[in-house]
């Protein structure tokens, strides 16, 4: 058996990615400790888990939340193709081997 499937994944939109990178650059340069955990390299390459926990509102150094950093939806659904290969086995191996059963 051979088949294919599509699985939905939430991924960061390109617009949000650009805004997030610019926000991290600006806030890290300003010394904001709330953005020190985010790696610019990971954000730029959209590495796995790079955007986990990323705030959608601007967080000031004292921890208060400000305005949203992006006006659109930060995530979009992309479908990824996956394939699978399976082997079917009979319920009774003796019938598979051609041995007579009693």
Detailed description of the structure:
The chain is an alpha+beta fold and 102 residues long. The protein has one domain. It is 25% helix and 28% strand. The chain contains 3 helices and 4 strands, in the order βααβββα. The strands form 2 sheets. A two-stranded antiparallel sheet has the order 1-4. The two termini are 31 Å apart.
Question: What keywords describe this structure?
Answer:
102 residues, alpha+beta, two-stranded antiparallel sheet, two-stranded antiparallel ribbon, 3 helices, 4 strands, 25% helix
Number of domains: 1
Intertermini distance? 31 Å
Number of helices: 3
- Which word captures the global form? elongated
Helix fraction bin = 25-40%
How are helices and strands ordered from N to C?
A: EHHEEEH
Q: Roughly what is the average pLDDT, rounded to an integer?
A: 87
Q: Give the DSSP E fraction (strand runs of 2 or more residues).
A: 25-35%
Strand elements, count: 4
Report the biggest beta sheet as strand number plus sense, adding barrel if it closes. Answer: 2 strands, antiparallel
- Report the C-alpha radius of gyration, rounded: 25 Å
Arrangement of strands in the largest sheet:
1-4
Structural class: alpha+beta
Low-confidence stretches: none
